[in-house]
Amino acid sequence: MNKVFLLFPLLLLSCGPISVELAEQQCMERARLAAGPRGEIAIGAGSNGPVTAYRLEINSDFLTGRDPSQVFETCVVSKSGELPRTPLYLQRGWRG
User: Fold this and answer.
1) Each residue of 39-71: b (16+ CB within 10 Å) or e?
2) Which of 12, 56, 79, 90 is the most buried (most CB within 10 A)?
């Protein structure tokens, strides 16, 4: 029974905020989806004939017209408790 009480504080710590840098990395995908839908199409041939596959991702931020930089900032603040250190449009790898 005492082991449960020792694990409880560790579980609470795992629910806490993450670093701003990690939050920025995690929030980039949400900002990309706010900028526009993403998808892919695959076409090929197999032993049973033609094969096609597709995937389309659309999120509510895009559908409601939210600004990707605002989506990014809100996401970072909710995950880390701090404002982003680098704005979305200056993030490495951002292609809006």
Assistant:
1) eeeeeeeeeeeeeeeeeeeebebbeeebebbeb
2) 79
Does residue 81 sit within a domain? yes
Cα 54 from chain centroid?
A: 21
Residue pLDDT tens, the chain, 96 long: 556 555 555 555 566 789 999 999 999 999 999 999 888 988 888 888 888 998 999 999 999 999 999 999 999 999 999 999 999 999 988 886
Question: What is the sign, positive or negative, of the torsion defined by CA atoms of 72, 25, 59, 34?
Answer: positive
Number of domains in the chain: 1
Q: Is residue 12 part of a domain?
A: no
